[in-house]
Design brief:
The protein has 100 residues and is mostly helical. It has one domain. It is built from 4 helices and no strands. Helix 2 packs antiparallel against helix 3. The longest helix has 30 residues.
Length: 100
């Protein structure tokens, strides 16, 4: 496990897992606090955390796709399309600003 984490790919996978786990945990905690208090601010914060969870989920799966080895259709590997994920992330944040 240590040599996997030491590699760049292993570290990225670990970071995406931790990010996803923390994001889901925040949603659960904030929803629980909202249910206990009825605070609209906590509900809004939970909705914000839900958007962050969606972004973490996209990152989690995108990294797995990007780490695929080169094939006939992707001569330089699958990670070259990083701009697509960046565009998605930007769209999520801009859409999030429109909802807030």
């Amino acid at each position: 496990m240590a040599e996997l984490i030491a590699s760049g790919a292993g570290l990225r996978r670990l970071a995406s897992r931790v990010s996803l786990i923390v994001a889901v945990g925040l949603v659960v905690v904030k929803l629980g606090a909202w249910l206990m208090t009825g605070s609209v601010a906590l509900l809004a914060s939970a909705a914000d955390a839900l958007v962050d969870t969606a972004a973490s989920l996209v990152t989690f799966f995108w990294l797995r796709y990007a780490e695929r080895p080169p094939d006939l259709e992707h001569r330089f590997g699958h990670g070259v399309n990083g701009g697509v994920k960046s565009g998605h992330w930007g769209g999520v944040k801009v859409g999030h600003l429109g909802v807030s």
